[in-house]
Amino acid sequence: MKFHILSIITFLMVALVATNAALPPQLYWKSKLPTTSMPKAITNLLHPVPDWKEETATSVDVGNGGVNVGVEKGYQGSGTDVNVGGGDGGVNVNTGPKGKPVHVGVGYYSPFVYNYAARETQLHDDPNVALFLMEKELHYGKKLNVKFSKTSNDDATFLPRKVADSIPFSSNKVNDILSKFSVKPDSEKAQIMKNTINECEEPSIRGEEKRCVTSLESMVDFSTSKLGNNVEAVSTEVNKENDVLQQYTIAPGVKKLGENKAVVCHKQSYPYAVFYCHKSETTKAYSVPLEGVNGSRVKAVAVCHTDTSQWNPKHLAFQLLKVQPGTVPVCHFLPQDHLLFVPK
């Protein structure tokens, strides 16, 4: 579901010399992960870092009337004014890199959340279906039919943590959230936002540690708290965008990225960037080069779960692969806007 864009978010960062000044997300990443390159799935969701200037202002505007966060000259970080409203009933957050988001119908649950049973329609309509496969298929020469479209609204970019933390994100506050974003409670947009919040509040399965993060800074904090600061961060990269299912062949160079410990972050459908991040110790990860029949090349990230015994028996993966929980490793390629963190 695409959340329509009505205005551009711009923000200038507070000077480094300012008291209590927060680092912009890009610099926060570098401060916490100095040896880790930022993958494309992250850079696509960020705003440029302006030159540092003393006594500058921070301004974030979302929609007609939007989310206005004032950090004026002399501001010492004592408070944040957030006003969300206006617009024409849409959910309005800054444009980032533009593309063609994939529509997934209301009522679908993310196949990357293991508690849910797949609906019959999801088996046919969910574009993520083609991403699931068996570990034994990850070898040179294997032909696979896959679709590597982005799976959620890629207009939804990261907000600075102070702004994101100022906006409610809870099922107890859902009416307030919808009101702030001028979303009608009975609309499809509202249902998608509710689904995302509900998925984030679902309890973890045994062996999983999870958190939904609403800013890049929070993602970095969660990942480093589970894996430390010496990590590799990767995402699937496609050199030629296409929105059709096509045949790919695995090229030479399949490489194991990590085993046992990993944090995977899945982008959710929401007005701004929200990721469902979870850590598992029963995971293998691979870098898989793919060549498409249309000439496209993909540097895909595949995640294999070696213990699926706690998953819902009617999970999408089991129905597609015709296997039972806990019997064989279940793998999936990561969509382009999802991330993998593994220890180096």
Automatic annotation (TrEMBL):
Every BURP domain range: 132-344
Domain of life according to the entry: Eukaryota
Entry keywords, A to Z: Signal
Record PROSITE patterns: BURP
InterPro entries, A to Z: BURP, BURP_dom
Signal peptide: 1-21
Pfam families attached to this UniProt entry: BURP
Record PANTHER family: BURP DOMAIN PROTEIN RD22 (PTHR31236:SF2), BURP DOMAIN PROTEIN USPL1-LIKE (PTHR31236)
This protein's name: BURP domain-containing protein
